[in-house]
Design brief:
- The chain folds into two domains: about 1-90, no CATH class; about 95-135.
- It is about 80% helix and about 0% strand.
- It has five helices and no strands.
- Helix 1 packs parallel to helix 4, helix 3 crosses helix 4 (about 40-60) and helix 4 runs antiparallel to helix 5 (about 65-135).
Length: about 150
């Protein structure tokens, strides 16, 4: 509603609007606004209030105040976006930490299974060697041959 009022009221004006006011309208209309609103609702609300104040100042003819309020609004939106990106990055980092923990646990299980398998192989080789030794058909155990 605020943006529409600003556009309609500015259409009747013969003087050009400050770039900062146009920029604030543009950054508030970007598709990530809802995501930013979720991450930093207070800042986005402040940015919308800054837009209202900038439009009001512009309609009163106070272009300096309109510029200041619009620049403030742009800064507020940019901070909200940065906070949203920070929140997303923290969530991705936490997910990555969880996945890394799972991978480490899987590697640990694999190493344990590998060690168990090697022990079983050595045990079986030893049993095979013992039976061949009893039969008199074998030399030293395979573990002595450099394995």
């Amino acid at each position: 509603m605020t943006v529409l009022f600003g556009i309609v009221s500015s259409g009747c004006s013969s003087r050009p609007q400050p770039e900062s006011l146009l920029e604030l309208r543009r950054v508030l209309s970007v598709s990530t606004v809802e995501q930013d609103r979720h991450a930093a609702a207070d800042l986005m609300a402040e940015a919308e209030r800054s837009l209202e104040m900038a439009e009001h100042a512009f309609t009163r003819g106070d272009e300096a105040m309109a510029r200041r309020m619009a620049m403030l609004g742009v800064i507020q939106v940019r901070i909200a976006r940065a906070l949203a990106r920070q929140h997303d990055a923290a969530a991705r980092a936490e997910k990555a930490r969880h996945e890394l923990t799972q991978v480490r646990e899987s590697i640990s299980r694999s190493k344990s299974q590998q060690a168990d398998a090697l022990r079983e192989i050595r045990r079986l080789e030893s049993l095979g060697h013992e039976s061949k030794t009893r039969a008199g058909t074998c030399g030293p155990p395979p573990s002595c041959l450099g394995r």
